[in-house]
Amino acid sequence: MDATATEGWGAAIYAWIFPMVIGDAVFPPIPSEMLVITGGALAAEGRVNLLLLGLMTAVASCLGDLLVFQLFKRRLSHVLDRWDWGRKVHQGIHRTIAKAGRSSTYGAIIGARFVPGGRLAASAAAGIAEVSTRGFSLCAALGGVLWAAWQAGLGYFAGSTTGLPFWASSLIGVGVGLLIGVVLGVIVTRRRGNRSPVDEPLDEAGD
């Protein structure tokens, strides 16, 4: 299939939204932002329903956040340590928390998703800090809606204003989003991140 053709991309976008956006909550390198932005660019060409794209993205974002939150709130994160890949993910989670700090305020839960790795750090830290499930769920839902609107909006705006093929509009949207995210990340991490609240020294546990 020609990757620059729009035929078939709409169905593929819908199929990948849930696994990639939910997976991104645990493993930030998953390019869920690129997927949603591409969906927005396709929506500008009439190939994807923008409202449905945003709704699916918001729901998947909220579910992913709740997954990480409950994992740490119920102290089930040790389950990851049963496998080598799980230990690496677990260690990566704590490194992310250490860099981003331990803030578990509602504002951080909503806003951290716009910073690279911030979504994971905020959800895990909120679980460790025993934030109420209701309060976290409301913040995750609101944050998911805002994040979905931002990412899909980037792609849609780039596609509708440039008139370029969807893949070019997607790259422009990703570039703008990445630049803004990096700037926000620099601002947020100017303060020194607190030591990650680890249940046990993972480096030793993995030896």
TrEMBL record:
GO terms for cellular component: plasma membrane. InterPro entries: DedA_domain, VTT_dom. It holds the Pfam family VTT_dom. Keywords: Cell membrane, Membrane, Transmembrane, Transmembrane helix. Its main location: membrane. Residues 30-156 form the VTT domain. Belongs to the DedA family. This is DedA family protein.
